[in-house]
Amino acid sequence: MMTASLTATSYSLGFSLVSFSHACSNPAASRNSASIYKFHRLPQTHLRVTANCDGGKSVSPSLPPVRALQDSATANEKGNDDEELSVLIAMRSQYNDIVIVDSPKARYLLLDSTHNVHSIYNKAEKWTGSYWDEFASLPAIIPNGPVALLGLGGGTAAHLLLELWPSLQLEGWEIDKILVDQAREYLGLSDLEKHNQDGGVLNIHVGDAFSPSAVVPGGFAGIVVDLFSDGEVLSHLQEVETWLELGKRLMANGRIMVNCGGAHPEKSNIGDGNLCEGDNVWLQNSTIRTMIKAFPGKLNWKRLSEKDSVNYMALTGTMPDLNEWANLLPHRLRSNLDQWRPCKFG
After folding, report:
1. pTM passes above 0.90
2. Which molecular-function annotation in GO is an example for this chain (predicted)?
3. Cβ pair 147, 63 in contact under 8 A
4. Average pLDDT of the chain?
């Protein structure tokens, strides 16, 4: 029998999503349990969640709020005062607590002890309205060649990349085999492993993204980095040597695009007297502060607008010509390009 406790979570930008705490004495039962959850919208976008589990027993909220990593569910849920969700899978692997939730419009992958949303699988379209969409702008400014996805998760970025750039060869690394298997079954990942009519495909590698074997002959045209654990960027990404090694995996003129997470309150000691404000606001992010040491003069940043997310993004290489970049992208990716800035001091 699966037992579950739930709470509504809302971060400062007004996004609300349910998070789960579960204990599965029988993993098979958790797979097949028909646990139905309802969202009841309250003022200020907070949600009250009730659950009917195994005979209708109500489970009351008990967890503290957690940070969410996306906000597309806000748009999905708008106008629905009561929306039923079902838990498709709730289980624990060596690396993660894995929960996949189904709604009428999308499926959500919640991972680790934070139960943050790590992947979205929208049923009507591949766009998410969040940072995953940003990765789909990368192929326009890199050479032809394979693109690595480090931190594949449930494949949200891969879905949109192959829809917009159908001839891409994607090489995805994910350390959790159980997660990959569940994403194949519930999040459409297996569809991407079949060559499409333009030759595009996702090749999945189960293993450590930092392993010396995580390479391809000739190097990658681009590398997408989206690596989190327990709500934090992986500690490897706070080491300059990690970025130097990843840079060596690129072909000539290749680039790396990174989800760097949110701001960090500690002040930077980079530069002389610079405050973390204005064009120096990137100093608030510890991952970007590390990357600038590996890519001096060749690092760019953006902070996603507050209505979307609090995430920082980073892009290696010289600053692209924004007009040329925009002309190669669909309209939905053009509007925020002007938020990219080179990392500078002062």
Report:
1. no
2. methyltransferase activity
3. no
4. 77
